[in-house]
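Hi R.,

As promised on Friday, here is the backbone we talked about, encoded as structure tokens. Could you run it through your design pipeline when you get a chance and send me back a sequence?
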């Protein structure tokens, strides 16, 4: 496919085209930046670049598996028992390069194979295992910022990538450890989407007011060391029943319940002094 605009490709098809460039491709600048390159940003790393006087520019990208030097294996002055077990990626695995030309005046991007370099010596899935694409990492971060556990994030990302983005192959091998690493880096912003959210605070106060009008006991709670907070509410009639029969049972839980992505759990709880509560917890 040469000198033609590309349209109506699935995400997996776009990934395949940009992974193994056979012919010159032309894509609009906006489409390339937003819906093409984020799918393969993990495959390529910048090798060279040049900016022209007319505003146009070009960049040469090399496969991320290109590695010209062997990694050092020296572990001097470190006791054997304290040495970390590490995996070393061999050098000189793949040498494919592509050239991305940005034609600013035409708002077009042209992608071509650079200097007839050879094909990849590995698969696209292997590139995904080496590093996740910007598209996948963005999905993970969107779920991680809600402070969900890694296992829930993996499930949500895989479902959305499969059903909405045609990225099933890209997330097929997504691991909880990868998600946990991304979530760890986001530790600071985890709660920022809720901090100062006037609409959220208003909704909480309105909910508490409604529950109290319905004769529910209602309390807000916050656990600082776990950055966890929510609302606990229980009806007096249920408390009487639980006081009589008390035990702890998870009755129902849902992944998401409202626009703030708070989850609802319904629990029977028996306290050690045989005082029970039926509580609904938003987390």
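Update: got your reply. Pasting your designed sequence below so it's all in one thread:
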């Amino acid at each position: 496919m040469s000198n033609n605009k590309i349209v109506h490709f699935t995400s997996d098809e776009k990934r395949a085209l940009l992974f193994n460039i056979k012919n010159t491709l032309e894509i609009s600048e906006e489409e390339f930046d937003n819906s093409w390159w984020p799918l393969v940003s993990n495959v390529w790393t910048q090798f060279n670049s040049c900016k022209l006087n007319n505003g146009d520019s070009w960049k040469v990208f090399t496969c991320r598996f290109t590695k010209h030097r062997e990694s050092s294996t020296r572990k001097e002055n470190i006791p054997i028992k304290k040495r970390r077990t590490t995996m070393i990626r061999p050098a000189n695995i793949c040498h494919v390069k592509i050239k991305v030309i940005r034609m600013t005046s035409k708002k077009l991007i042209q992608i071509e194979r650079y200097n007839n370099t050879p094909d990849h010596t590995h698969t696209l899935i292997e590139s995904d295992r080496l590093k996740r694409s910007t598209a996948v990492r963005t999905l993970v971060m969107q779920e991680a910022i809600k402070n969900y556990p890694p296992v829930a994030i993996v499930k949500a990302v895989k479902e959305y990538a499969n059903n909405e983005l045609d990225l099933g192959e890209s997330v097929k091998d997504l691991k909880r450890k990868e998600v946990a690493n991304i979530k760890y880096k986001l530790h600071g912003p985890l709660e920022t989407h809720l901090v100062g959210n006037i609409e959220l605070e208003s909704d909480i106060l309105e909910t508490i007011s409604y529950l109290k009008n319905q004769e529910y006991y209602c309390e807000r709670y916050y656990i600082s060391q776990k950055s966890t907070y929510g609302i606990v509410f229980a009806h007096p009639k249920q408390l009487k029943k639980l006081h009589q029969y008390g035990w702890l049972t998870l009755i129902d839980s849902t992944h998401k319940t409202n626009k703030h992505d708070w989850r609802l759990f319904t629990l029977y709880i028996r306290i050690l002094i045989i005082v029970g509560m039926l509580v609904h917890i938003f987390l």
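One thing I noticed while checking it: The beta strands are 25-28, 44-51, 57-63, 97-103, 108-113, 217-223, 228-234, 249-253, 264-270, 276-282.

Thanks again,
M.
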